Every structure is written in structure tokens, then in C-alpha cells.
Amino acid sequence: MKTITADFEYFSAATAGEALDLLAQHKDDDYRIIAGGQSLNTFMKHGLLKPEIIIDIKGASDLDYIKYDDKEGLKIGALTTHRKLEQSPVVAEKYAALVDMEVNVASVETRNWGTVVGDIVNADPAADPAPPLIALDASVVVASKEGTRSVPAEEFAVDLYTSAVEPGELVTEIQIPALPANTGFYFTKYSQLHGDYALASAAVLLTLDAKKEKCVNARIGLGGVGATPIRATAAEDILKGKKITDELLAEAAQAASEATEPISGIEASAEYKKELAGTLVKRVAKEALARAQKA
Amino acid sequence: MKKQLNIVVNGEPRELYVEPKTLLLQVIREHLGLKGTRPACDSSSCAACTVIVDGMAVKSCSILALQVNGKEVTTIEGLAEESQLHPIQKAFVDNWAFQCGYCTSGQIMATKAFLDENPDPTRVQIQEALDGHLCRCTAYNMIIEAVQDAAKRLQARKAEKGAA
Question: Please, what are the domains in chain A?
């Protein structure tokens, strides 16, 4: 049995307030925050991380919520598990593709314990939630004793396994705006095993004009094809203001593919992933378009 | 420094003192001596170590024991009643749902949590529920049949109890 060998001091917080107190106290120490911890524990087992202090927020139940209203959109508290997002009726109704995303995250057991916020803070570029959050124009609320700030989803991961969270800070919530009328949103990942991290993934949000002819807004998020999840702005610009045709989608897919910087791995070469990202953008945008036309 | 851990394991309250780095799987196997929960991949990829915490199937190899403080843990040893195997266990035996059996306890625990939530599942729902469980002996079809059979047995048992 592989175990964690390096010792650490352990503190647990029962509320967000307690967590912020602990973080302020240990701001200059070598600490890590644990929620589900399924990635963190694996890193610690392999000795890749040896924090001196663990601050456990799993018990901060005031951060375990999903709220929605038509004005403010969706709010996902930091302790919301993948499984709760997957089973939320309001998420299924308003952002159906997020449920499709969730059912392909690892396995039921992992989703039962792991949190969505923990997943994005872990900042694995091939993880599932970030590309849809980028396409949905989500923001991440980051709190400290000094106050709160909001980070756009596309700026939240700053490098491989590195998020924008600074010492003393805690992510408390993800906010997703309510979708405007005539909007379609879709996400797909490609992986060799069901539930595995993506070789490449793509999320597309399209808003059409009142006549449902022209695209008035497009947002595209890509995963698994760079050191961080990527927002493909050049591809978005190709679609905006135009009637979406197969030719235009091919052009946007090409631009999205060019925005990627994948690395080769045992499962696929960088070249393959680059191609795959473009193909996914084309397919996902088609589905987003169909959903926008039905919306 | 060791910390106090209070958990209810298979219905019995246990008070333990553990190092914070201790995993739930270590507590179950080493501190409590319950060897039916199996380590395998040690990286939350195979689900052999699955146990039930407060009604949810989770992977005990990737959870700090202190994180389940105050919660109820059920392992494979908690299913049988006296000398009677649990209906899910019987269904796995009768349907030849394993060969070496190493990963079976994890599958049975996942099945227990799943059927508690969804007593009358479709084949596709069973496949999705057990999707994360790797089995090198490749008894996959028989596992699905065992879960279907287990669901029937549990429903029959419930009807019997209701009638009595």
C-alpha cells in the first residue's frame, strides 16, 4: 500500500470564516488547503508535495451549496462535490452540458468526494471543468481576511498545476452568468478511457440574434492542449457577427487548433492533439448551434 | 502528533488516535484489521478500495482518515448478517462475477451504495455506476448480471419484509 510518508500538521475548519482565520494565521507557512484531496493526497504519496501544514476545509458546510436565479445566474459553493453538480435539477435545466461534463469526470466514487472548486484549483490543464467555465464566462470568487476578488475563469489557471490563488486566500464560489436568450452551450472531451483526463476537450457557447441568423457572441474553451486551459479568442472572433456555416466553422476550428500548445505523451503526439482540438471545436460548435436554434 | 478520530465502523463506534497523514484505507486495514478492503492502484484509479461513507461510495486510498471524523464507514465486513451473506454477495457468487476476487469487495460496496439509491436500475445505469472499477480477470458481463440479480433479490427481500 502506497502511503503518505512525510508528516504534516493538520487543522480543520468548520466554516469559511474559520478557514480564512487559519489561512491568515499560516499565510507565510508552507501549507496546502485540502477539500476532497484526491489529487493532493496522490501528489503527497509520491513525495511531489510535502507541505508542513494541511488546512482541511471539507467540513466547511456553509460553502456547500448550488444557487440559481435568473438575474445572478448559478453560484457553486467551494465545497460542492462533482456529484452534487451532476445531480442538481437546476443545473440540468439551465446548463445541461455541465451534467454531460460531470458524468464523464473520473468515476462515481471520485465525484462523490471531490469538489468542483478543488478540481480547478488543482489546475490540471486536462481536467474537465475549466473549459466549460471559460465558455460560460464564469468567474471565480477568491476571498481572504482583507476582502474578496473575482478572477475570470480563463485567467484562473496561471500555469501547469498553478492557480491564481495567493497565500492566505481561499476560493469560496464559482459564479456562472444566466444564459441570454438564443444561446446554446456544449462540451465534449476525448479520452481513451471513459472518465479519464482529456487528451483534448472543447466547450463552446454561441448566442444568436433575435432572428437566429447571425452569431452575436461566441466563447470557446479548450482543455488538455496547453499548460493551462485555453480561451480561443481568435476562433471566437471568426464566428462573431456572421451566419454560421460549415465553412465558417472549419475556419474557426483551424484558428482554435492554432491557439493550442499541446505536449506529446504516451497516449498521443502533440500533432494529434492539435488536430483533435480543431475537430472537437467543429463538432461541439455544431451542437451548440443546434441548441441555440432550439433555445 | 496523533489526533483523535471517532468513527462508526460497520455499526460499531471506534475511537482511534492517528497521525494526520494516515489514509482511511490504512485505518481500515492496519488499525482495525479489516482486510476485506483492498489496496491496488493506490492512486484513486481502480476503485478496489471502495467503502461507503455516510451512504456514499468513496475510494479509501485517497482520503485522509481525519476527513471522515464523525462519519459512518461501512466495509465489506459490515454486509453479512450473522453467518448469512448479504444478497449482493450471494448474487456475485451465484453469477460467477469474479475469478480471483481481489477487486470484488470494492465492486460489492459500490453496488450496495448504488442499489440503495437506485433499487431498480437499467443495465446502462449499472454500467455507469461501476464504470470506475477495474477488474483484470475481465468478469465484466457477469458483474453486470450479478448486480441485476442482486437488485431482484433485494426487492424480493423488501417485499417479504413488507408482507411480514
Answer: 9-56 (3.30.43.10), 61-176 (3.30.465.10), 183-294 (3.30.390.50)
Asked if B66 reaches chain A (Cβ–Cβ under 8 Å), the answer is yes
Contacting B residues, span 73-102, partner chain A, CB-CB under 8 Å? none
**Across the interface, do B132 and A110 touch by the CB < 8 Å criterion?**
yes
CATH of residue B16: 3.10.20.30
Interface test with A, best of B1, B41, B62 (most A CBs within 10 A): B62
Q: B115: domain range?
A: 87-163
Does the distance separating the beta carbons of A107 and B62 come in below 8 Å? no
Distance CA A217, CA A205 (A): 8
CA-nearest of A272, A230, A224, A274 to A253 is: A274
pTM of the model: 0.96
**Nearest C-alpha of chain A: how many angstroms from B4?**
12
d(CA B61, CA B66): 13
Please tell me the total count of domains within chain B: 2
Mean pLDDT by 10 residues, chain A (295 residues): 97 98 98 98 97 98 98 98 98 98 96 98 98 98 98 98 98 98 98 93 98 98 98 98 98 98 95 98 98 96
Q: Is B46 on the interface with A (CB under 8 A)?
A: no
Can you tell me whether residue A190 is helix, strand or coil? Answer: strand
The helix (H) or strand (E) run that includes residue A77 is: strand A73-77
Q: Is B42 on the interface with A (CB under 8 A)?
A: yes
